[in-house]
Amino acid sequence: MVLVLTGVCLVCAALLGGAYVITKDPIAKADKEKTVKALSEVLPAFDTVSEEPLEAGGCNYYVAQKDGAVVGYAIESKTGGFGGELTVMVGIDAKTGFIWNTAPLKHGETPGLGAKCEDANGKFRTQWQGLNPAEHAFEVKKDIDAITASTITSKAYTKCVTQALEAYKLIMEEPSNE
Amino acid sequence: MNILVSPNPHIHSKWSTRSLMTDVVIALLPAAICSVVFYGWREALVLAVSVLSCVGFEWLITRCLMKQRSTICDMSAVVTGLLLGMNLPFTTPWWMVMIGALVAIGIAKMTFGGLGQNVFNPALVGRVFLLVSFPAVMTTWVGPVHFADAFTGSTPLSSVNEAILNGTPVTEITSQYSYGSMLLANLGGSAGEICALALLLGFVYLCVRKVIKPWITLSIFATVALTSLIFWGIDSARFTDPAFNLLSGGLILGACFMATDYVTSPMSTLGGIIFGVGIGFLTMMIRYFGSYPEGVSFAILIMNAFVPLLNRWCKQKKFGRA
Amino acid sequence: MNKFRIILDGIVKNNPTFVLILGMCPTLATTTSAINGLSMGLATMFVLILANMVISLIAPIVPDKVHIPVYIVVIATFVTLLQLLLKAYVPAVNDALGLFIPLIVVNCIILGRAEGFANKHGVGESALDGIGIGIGFTLALTVLGAVREILGSGSIFNVQFIGEQYQMLAFVMAPGAFICLGYLMVLFNKFIKKEK
Question: Which chains sit next to B, with 3 or more Cβ pairs under 8 A?
């Protein structure tokens, strides 16, 4: 009895160990591609990006470079949305300090309502592009248009952006990034 | 074999389903007329489409699918249609009303075996299905056409819900609505919610005709009043007051006409009171803490599910035994 | 037993979703679109065939007392293998199905077939049973996913053909899954009865 169970477990463990070794690199590559894809959506064109996310003000962020010069910062920020946690990636153009683009990374918003924040060409997502943080208070229904019938999602999304901008200020104050 | 569980009138009274249902229709008429007066021809269209398609679907299903004599003569489909229509905003497109009618009659009623077998109130299932399916249309309320300046696009309850989320005191919102105007003509909301007085008139008519017993309705009102009194007493800036809660939203329509539906409410008085308390409490919890501004329909549907249990628990005493 | 009969039984007479009513959790949760239903069905079929074969091989030497732990270890191994492969080569599928890939371990279809079929039959027959049941499950999930996608998102296999304002969101959510599954079961069983 013990012998069979041990034997089966050993064989299975060996099999999985082998599979893990074989798939390790492709998985890492796939993960990396996912991050790069998410970053390229919110940042101006870049060629290299920080391997590991850095941290500032409670937010993870990536620094993107092109030809050795920093072109943008992508800051991940999260808050409670309508249906669970909402994570938004905010890309900031390093040259101007303006918002380049934003993208929701993870959300549990209602399909057809709050989930419209996914739509990259929708009115809600496009309104963020090129905004100057210094000129806006970022308040829903004032300078930010809400998604129809989804005020909570719109507010959560806006809060994420505000948090990311706070984090961006901290990043700029850190001398190590110069 | 299915045993038909049904309340008293089916067993020992001279009333037929048809006369009972006709009484319900008569009771709903004042509120329906009010809503047409306030909202105009589009409201009449919603009500007409709703009633006609409910009756039509019932006829089609009984004749073509079940191959039986159709049951449309018992008027229950008319009641379902009227209630469904009164629960929708008057801006609802006609095809959406028809989908609601198909869900109400086809899914909620006939799938379970027709009148007397359905667990959930068909009109409410239709309404909640539409609310979940087309939230943008179903939650965009437009004020009555006769109050051009009250064209706010939101109901008193949805404004309050937003105020709570924003952290502004709800008194700022509630002070905009006088109780008198809410009693006569609710500002914004679905058709059946607009005139509390007309609905109460229908309720009194039903009670006088002994079509319904008032216990369920009264216990809902009492629970809503008590629950909101407690919360309002604790923090009047965050929670709305009892009178506001009694008069706003679909509470009166739901408590008077939907919760008292024969098939989907408990048979005994005690069961009915527990049922009503449950609805009232759940309604207030959804209004105060939920993300939907209004919770009456959800509360009634949830308590519908408990009706078989309540019927078992509060069995009526047999004759001859105290 | 006729080989073709085993496969056909898995699809019709023993259809795991519509007749045996097994594996309801992934059935209800992952069928928000036809493609999700299809990938969940194929993923389950992969594990089902391999687990059936291995279990029919080792069944004679496994003592009764530990047969459930052994079967679970075998099934879990194939599920983990599947997840690693999906993550590495088709990450999109892995993201879409998420938690429901590891949950294949506890899918009662797989343990049910191991207990009910594979440990009494040979490798070949067990493999055929895995294929049959797998196809039955995949078809059921794809049909359910397609119906929900058409009604709820107005598209089929991601090809949009109904305007946004006509989409019934209830069908992409949990209640729609239950409603669709119920009606599909009714239709399927009516159809089977007529066959007889």
Answer: A, C
Chain A / chain C CB contacts < 8 angstroms: 60
Q: Between chains, do C168 and B133 touch, taking CB under 8 Å as contact?
A: yes
Closest CA to C45 of C124, C122, C144, C128: C128
Domain boundaries, chain C: 24-145
The contacts found for B221-229 with CB under 8 angstroms, 24 or more apart, are B221/B246, B221/B251, B221/B255, B221/B280, B222/B276, B222/B277, B222/B280, B223/B276, B223/B277, B223/B279, B223/B280, B223/B281, B223/B284, B224/B251, B224/B280, B224/B283, B224/B284, B227/B280, B227/B281, B227/B284, B228/B284
Q: Phi and psi (nearest 5°) for B297?
A: -65, -40
Distance CA A160, CA B297 (A): 33
**pTM score of the predicted model:** 0.81
- The chains in contact with chain A, meaning 3 or more Cβ pairs closer than 8 Å, are B, C
Helix (H), strand (E) at residue B165: helix B156-166
In this structure, are residues B87 and B192 in contact, taking their beta carbons and an 8 Å threshold? Answer: yes
Write the CA distances from C157 to A41, B74, C177, integer angstroms. 25, 44, 17
Q: Would you say the ipTM is above 0.85?
A: no
Q: Which residues contact A8 (CB under 8 A, 6 or more apart)?
A: C58, C62, C70, C73, C74
Partners of A114 on chain C (C-beta within 8 Å) are none
Q: Name the token pair of A143.
A: 């300078």
* pLDDT digit string, tens, across residues A11-61: 999 999 999 999 998 888 888 888 788 788 888 877 777 777 777 777 888
Rounded CA separation B103/A138 (Å): 42
- Measuring CA to CA, how many Å separate B181 from each of A60, B27, B37, B191, B248? 53, 22, 16, 15, 11
Count of other CB atoms within 10 angstroms of residue B170: 22
Amino acid at A60: N
* pLDDT tens figures, B201-221: 889 999 888 888 888 999 999
What is the residue extent of each domain of chain B?
A: 19-137, 140-313
A118, A102, A121, A106: which is closest to A150 by C-alpha? A118
Whole-number Å distance between alpha carbons of B178 and B249: 14
A-facing residues of C in 92-151 (CB < 8 A) are none
Q: Does A148 touch chain B (CB under 8 A)?
A: yes
Mean pLDDT of the A81-107 span: 83
Q: What is the pLDDT of residue A178?
A: 43
Domains and CATH numbers, chain A: 48-177 (3.90.1010.10)
Burial status of residue C194 (CB atoms within 10 A of its CB: 0-12, 13-18, 19 or more): exposed
How sure is the predictor about B99, in pLDDT bands with cuts at 50, 70 and 90?
A: very high
Contact by Cβ (8 Å): A152, A166: no
8 A C-beta contact, residue C28 and residue C82: no
